[in-house]
Specification:
Number of strands: 8
Distance between the termini: 20 Å
Amino acid sequence: MFYKIENKNCEVYQKLFAMRKQELAWEKENQEAIDKKIWLKYTEFLGRNGQQTFSRTSSYSGFKFENHEKVDLGIWKESPKYPGFYIPNKRTKRGKEMSRFLSTSLKGHRFNIVFEYLNLENLYGSFVLPYVEISNDSIIVIYLDPRQNPKDENVIEITKEEFEAILKK
């Protein structure tokens, strides 16, 4: 379901606004940390881009390096599933360290922080990860699992078309 929050003075707006701004800052910090750690330039990565992860920030599990001749095979190995991409070589100490870095050292929130701020129950089993975005620094749009229904009067249900129109601004 699609929702918006326009009231900048309400508590839920302020919490979600601060949360999303923090996540955007963390995305930049995480990118800088990755660039520093792997030092090779890459054109693509394996993982998930954006907030549709359990940590609400991008996740990385492998890279397609520009100059694959310089890849240190003590850290990386070519992915058997995705040719041209390199994943940490978990058979080596440095590869395990890289794998640990990619899975535990990057900053992010727990996905259910959105549920807490909206005073929603956690869903178990199969569910949709919450999506929160700020449009023009004035309207927060939210996409939630259809089984969740925010009770806060400042969280207004909208159509998919309105959701997309707000995001395009």
